Amino acid sequence: MDTRKRLRFFIWCTVVFIIMASWLYVWKEKTEPASERAAFVVAKRQILNSANTYRQNWLLNKQPSMMGVDGVDIQFTKQGWPVMLKNDRIDCAKWLSLLWPDENVFGKKYSVIDMRDDSKLTSCEYIFTGGVVLDLHLINMAFGAEVNYP
Question: Residues 141, 77: contact at Cβ < 8 Å?
């Protein structure tokens, strides 16, 4: 009889363990995408805030074409948006690292996938592990940031 009780106890513990493990797996699968989206929303807002902060400093410093901030020389558009140039073209990697110093978002690293530069549009696209695309752009010299999910 004692063996029977132990067997029953073992079966109940196994069933409870399987139910808890299943619940945790489903919970993780449901909450991780929402957390990832929230992290990218925060990153986008921080990038916009950072660009606006640099623009405010530009306005307060009599609108120079270049300004040194924390040992980094930052170029500005005529409207005061910070840009990082290399050979008179936008340097996408440095532009994002200026506005978002972290090297990743939600543990996901990025790489530059596209750069466009013409009279009305300057744009850099970055792809993160997992397929999320971040687009920094100057459209008609107005700064913006967009996040596109796969």
Answer: yes
Rounded to 5 degrees, φ, ψ at 119 are: -65, -30
- For residues 109 and 102, the answer to whether their CB atoms sit within 8 Å is no
User: How many C-beta atoms lie closer than 10 Å to residue 136's C-beta?
Assistant: 24
Tokens of residue 142, six digits: 């107005």
Tens digit of each residue's pLDDT (9 = 90 or more) over 72-125: 899 999 999 999 998 888 999 999 999 999 888 888 888 888 888 887 888 999
What is the tens place of the pLDDT at every residue in 32-61? 677 888 889 999 999 999 999 999 999 999
How far apart, in whole angstroms, are the C-alpha atoms of residue 56 and residue 91? Answer: 22
Identify whether the C-beta of residue 40 lies closer than 8 Å to the C-beta of residue 100. Answer: no
Token pair of 28, please?
Answer: 């993780």
Query: How far apart, in whole angstroms, are the C-alpha atoms of residue 136 and residue 50?
Result: 13
